[in-house]
Amino acid sequence: MKTMLSSGVGGLSASTVLLNSGASAQSLSDYKALVCLFLYGGNDGYNVLLPADQSLHTQYLSMRPVYNATSRTGVGVPFDQVIPLNGPSGQSLGFHPSLVRIKQRWTQGQVAVIQNVGNLVEPVSRSNLMVRQRPTGLFAHDEQQEISMLARSDSQGAGTEQGWGASVWSALNGKYGLASAGVNFAMVSFGGANRWQTSPLMLYDNLPPNQTLNFAHLDHTSGLLGLGQSSSQPYVRSYSNQLAHFQTQSTALNSMVSNLNSPGYQAFATTAGGQSSSLHNQLLAVVRAIEARQQLQAPGRQIFFVGMGGFDTHVDQYLIHSQLWNQIDSASHAFLTALESLGMASQVTLFTMSEFGRSLRMNASNGTDHAWSSHQWVMGGAVRGGLYGRAADITPTSEDVAPFSTDVVIPSTSINQYAATLAAWMGLNPTDLNAVFPDLRNFAQPNLGFMNS
């Protein structure tokens, strides 16, 4: 069944119909999709975007001793392994050595890095940290995951919370009447249950990546559904109609999964070169769903979720983090290559989120601890490549560093600004954005400019 917590497909619920604005909706002639890659555990962005200037790198190593492969101590990336960025916006910065393919995409203008993003209610600095409103539950995984996925500072009440992914789709539906064309596969997760797509008004499809659903293969199902649809009981008819729709969509999904000769599948598999991981499988599933969107009767706007864990790197961070980003590097490159083979690279945008960043200073276990700010990556043909946001002054006493013992960077860019920029690309105007992101009004720059229209 189609729920927020179990696998399923298809279905236009009564509550979803209420979202449709009907005759007042504007026309929509194009297709766009957002793909959220959530990095569970708190990604250490400060070991992915690195100083490529010798003096700044020395300052970085003073907090994060360089990694020693023999003793497996330290977390710092050696200076000669940093991949320098090209162009005026990246002269003194570089990428982690695992990001070889992402660096190629950067050179092509398809990657934007948004610096120092975090959960914020309003702008905050070291000197006003104790008097400004701050997110609740700083440094706590569950609370910060929820805040980043809801992009709201206020509690909406049990059972009424709506993730900002779902809010964006609902606003797009109200604007363009997407539900009138069907809402099959409007919001799809191949990364499990999540708060980002949660809504009391609409359920999302939580599907196993690249697996068929056995429901469609039950030989006696059609006969049973036929009896139910002819029942004199309205609830029986309604339930049977929903199950029949589920069966139809299961059949379409299974047909998509069984097709190993589609251009998108072949391009992804060839580019991945045999490298496989959970993220590879999830992003491949997104490619296949986008490629088969007409067969699946998907609307002109889709919201996808994928995720990977392992980023809570308190211990032995260097090798773990390098392996994780090697997977992201390979899988995201294969994903973009597959979209290019379909002529859809400019219609789909992949972006990262994580509940928080890591401490600037290494801990005693050759890892880093929970912190606040991090960097986020956005990739796709519609991306205006480059560096965005303000680089932090990592001097321990600067206005950008909180007065905590682990040297925590304070975000200078809000998750609201980051999310609103993506939502604007999807088709929402400033009025829509202020409704979806209530705290956006607290920030001077609601659109960060990293997306082409």
Automatic annotation (TrEMBL):
Organism this protein belongs to: Limnohabitans radicicola
Lineage top rank: taxon: Bacteria
Pfam families listed in its UniProt record: DUF1501
UniProt name for this protein: DUF1501 domain-containing protein
